[in-house]
């Protein structure tokens, strides 16, 4: 610690300033101004260090003597009057951090350098046993190429590092969740008009790898079905304004031209000042896939290509993975299908695939493919691991039958909803007012009559009616009524009769 500048020292310094050959006749105002400035500077330094919790210290490289202030002693878990030396200093440093500290000290006293000292390390308090993280900086002074003095400052950054670690853990948890979600999770920057994050499900829904996706919202909008772009644009504008919006729309996949139905729940992300700095969304794919996917898992690239070609020749969509772990990383977001697992290389890793699928409750049937001549114990171990079938290489007839059985099992579990189920699901997402308008239309009411019953204007009824048709994707009133009837909404039995149907 730099020695405190007491009034006596100030007086001695000021007397030195005013003593010269002319004697005491010099005006003493000069040394008084100096003393006042010295006391003011010292007060400001104390206030600044106390405000941010900085500990001040000094070190003599020649003698090794240390001087610490009370705050630095507290960081080492020491009482304010504890004598300090280099042995006590080093003993408090965490054993794993001592060598980096020694290296930093050696660099700062090397006259070939600039004398700077910047290091962060852990300290275990001598009295309280608390582990703290200390960040410290300082500088060495040199005379004739020799280190003659050092002064530094240290601060306890334990709380800051814990907060940073918590943020990193939270981010890791979010990314892990997003990576294994079957729904697409996305985050956008409304000011820049850019999408800054997409989860792995994007590739399955859009048919394009995330790294190749458009980052600009305007470019992304080109994939939205032309008839749905105005609705999507209005919804995103509402989210940017601070609303939570759920909407459905279609996209035309850029590579294969396939159309998919999506439902998006979008929401604003506010900063501490209440401003919308980010927007996010969870996108669910409502499209019912044709379940004919076969995922080939093989550690041999040449064999993977052969199996994939055979799968496609049998009329299935094939996709290869070079390891079981690569497949399991993508399994949660893959379309329904089955796994053709090549056990001829890496049997142990291969059998981990059906075990992990079962442990994660992912319903993708696994067919184990083994080398010709494998004994029955291999088949037993594969079936115990969770494979639904076991076949040998070269037996194309067995492979054809096994694939057909596994795909049939997938198709049974992924039964497409009936028209009634689709209609009920869509109507269930209407707002209460929109549902009331739909009921009025089913009863045969005009905009004016419905408005009178609900206490709203005919123009408002017309707006709700247009929104209902948009939400239910109905192109005419007749189609709208057919959807309502399919969902179980029937006309009232008479004046004042009870309306039946979905609620």
TrEMBL record:
Q: Which reaction does it catalyse?
A: ATP + protein L-histidine = ADP + protein N-phospho-L-histidine
The PAS domain extends over 41-112
- Name the InterPro entries for this protein: CheY-like_superfamily (IPR011006), PAC (IPR001610), PAS (IPR000014), PAS-assoc_C (IPR000700), PAS-like_dom_sf (IPR035965), PAS_fold_3 (IPR013655), Sensor_kinase/Photoreceptor (IPR052162), Sig_transdc_resp-reg_C-effctor (IPR016032)
User: What is the official name of this protein in its record?
Assistant: histidine kinase
Q: Where do the Response regulatory domain residues begin and end?
A: 293-408
What residues does the PAC domain cover? 117-169, 245-298
Tell me the keywords, alphabetical order.
DNA-binding, Kinase, Phosphoprotein, Transferase
Q: Which residues carry this modification: 4-aspartylphosphate?
A: 342
**Transferase among the record's keywords?**
yes
Region annotation Disordered: residue ranges? 1-27
Q: Which residues form the HTH luxR-type domain?
A: 423-488
Keyword Amino-acid biosynthesis attributed: no
Organism for this UniProt entry? Sphingobium fuliginis (strain ATCC 27551)
